[in-house]
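Issue 218. Parser rejects a valid record. Input:
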Amino acid sequence: MTAQAHHSPTEPDGNSANSANSGSRAGRADGSGFRLPGLWTRTLGELTLSYVPDAGVSMIPSRVYPSSAQEEWDAYRAHLTHEGHLAMGCGALLVERAGTRLLIDAGHGRISGEEVAHFQHSFGHVRDLPHSLTALGVDPAALETVAFTHFHADHTGWARPDAVEDPRSLFPKARWIVGEGELDAVPDGAGPVLAGQDERTVVVADGTRIADGVHAWSLPGHTPGHTAWVLDTGDGRQVVAFGDALHSPVQIEHPDWEVVLDADREEAERSRRRLVEHLARDGVFGFGVHFADQQLGTVDGTGRWLPWTDEPTRR
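Output the parser choked on:
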């Protein structure tokens, strides 16, 4: 794809539906950039999108991006806490259109907040997804479809067999949809990633339409079957829910920065470059589940992430 001239995004048809969380998007008074993700709802054309938060986490930048140099982060202090940690979030995206609903990813799930990996510093809040769905008026037992970008634990959380007391998970009726290659990459003897994995999982190829206005886009590398979900707004625009193809707005300017958990670093970089180029096209927007309070946005004419805010930037 060839990047076209880009114009600043216009305001979505609807703004945040949960002003109580606006403080989490505003950042701390010290300007450190540590902003825990808050629940929000926005309407774009025929789509209603809701970010469903599950956990906030601060990362150790040089461990998440091992090829980055410490001095390179000096230009990105706005994304770091006062202590120098990178703010990220974990959660899911609820997609609603013409009376149908699907969830993209399933959050972090049953974490204690004390179980940090070597590249993490701390969690800010945990196990919020069930409460967040309730706040949106959504019964998880009634959801019929959960589409996964990939099988890492912070994306399959509430869909795992041990998510809740019911072994069918928080979503007992849902079918699971995943891109080609992801299921095959689960190690032998590892046990099921998802509840009812053998009976409930549907594997789809690149370009497959899974619902009205929703199709798969294969972006492998972070995992073998990593898949973005492309959402048609019905009015000529497009939203790409790209999972872990990108972990932070900073990475848009540094697609060469591999992530510590990338399964195939060269392929992951190729996918990042394809994604960034696509997000720079007119009318194409992205949803980055780990982008702290800047999940929804686009790539502007300078090659940087331009988030949608309650007071949109206009040029």
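Fixed in the parser; the record now loads. Residues 19-297 form a domain with the Metallo-beta-lactamase; Chain A fold (CATH 3.60.15.10).
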